[in-house]
Amino acid sequence: MATEPAPLRDRLRKRVLSTVLGRIDNRRYPREGDGRQATAASSPGPYYIADPPVRSDVREDREGLPLLLRIRTVDVGTGSPVVGASVEIWHCDAVGSYSGYRAYHPDKFPNVPLMLLRRYRPTDATTFLRGRQVAGADGVVEFRTIVPGWYTPRTPHIHYRAFLDGVDLVTTEFYFPDEFSARVQASPPYDRRGRGPFTNDNDIEIRVAKGSAGSWLDITETADGVVGAITVRVDREGGRR
Predict the structure, then answer these.
(1) Taking the model in full, what pTM does it have?
(2) 10-residue block means of pLDDT along the chain (241 residues)?
(3) Fewer CB within a 10 Å sphere, N or C end of the chain?
(4) In Å, what is the CA distance from 173 to each residue of 3, 214, 241?
């Protein structure tokens, strides 16, 4: 029997996933934390690369809507800033491609067995849209980046990871309002791929994190782009156990 063409397999996988995710209603989960609970955790995903460059501007040559990402990391128990936290971010570009993994096409369904086994290996040496900084006395770091696009099978998101004294405090993701993402994806260079079928209301990671409380960016539009602000609440004591 002839082997089915890979593009058709990808389309079928995408259709099945879209059907399954379409039955998920994340709207019944709370999205906002109450300030007394730690920010919801998530997996680092298949495209994590340790020790990204230390820098505030992670854009390199990537085109897209400018985003000033302002992250404040605090202790959930005391509300005090986590001074000295090493904060990492990474995300895809406007057309859904991750640096280090450009061989993986953003329209193709990921290889689930490899992803579960954490055997996604970098395919190139690019570093765009990855960066690391150390939080100062106010617990704040800022990154100049772009609003990410979408890729199969995820809603637009930004990955975040924080360490303190070598201890992993939390790994999570930041999300955008669906209506905002829709407007962004209708403009260049995002419109080269069009509106993504994967939204906050059918995203599997948000479902797993029961709404991802505390992971939602506060978006302010400016003349130069947008500012995305968020306070990440970490359980320092829990991270040390």
Answers:
(1) 0.87
(2) 47 51 53 76 92 98 98 96 98 98 88 68 95 98 98 96 95 97 97 94 92 96 96 79 37
(3) N
(4) 38, 10, 23
